[in-house]
Amino acid sequence: MKKLVKDVVTDESFAESKWDSLEALTTVHKNISIAPVLQVYVAADIKNSSQNIVVFDQSGSSLAKESYLKNSTFHIRHREAYLKYMKSIAKQMGANETGLKYMM
Asked: What pTM did the predictor assign?
């Protein structure tokens, strides 16, 4: 992840024409379970429940399902980091500390 960000953000010799965006998105999706652009998953076909389909869905700022459901140290840290992130966004949008206690 550091390499992907470093190359794009800080490397002066970075050449967009040589950057493989599909590889970068795949790496982010695979290694840290974040779908930055699209979520891709397999689900039951709503027209024929005996078949499965590949679903392409919009992404958003949320955690993977496992991070909400599991209570390992790893998943708890994910939830805490996500809460901190969402609070920082709310503050940037004008929320105050009192309001944050009720919103989050």
From this structure: 0.44
pLDDT, mean of residues 19-24: 76
Among the listed residues 67, 65, 61, the one whose alpha carbon sits nearest the alpha carbon of residue 86 = 61
DSSP 88: H
Are 4 and 28 in contact, with CB atoms under 8 Å apart?
yes
Q: What is the CA radius of gyration of the chain?
A: 18
Pull the structure tokens for residue 61. 């700022």
Chain-centroid distance of CA 63 in Å reads: 6
> What letter represents residue 8's amino acid?
V
Half-sphere exposure of 89 (CA within 13 A, CB side): 9
The Cβ of residue 35 has, within 10 Å, a number of other Cβ atoms equal to: 17
Question: Residues with Cβ < 8 Å from 82, sequence gap 6 or more?
Answer: 63, 67
Helix, strand or coil, per DSSP, at residue 12: coil
Residues 6+ apart with CB under 8 A from 69: 75
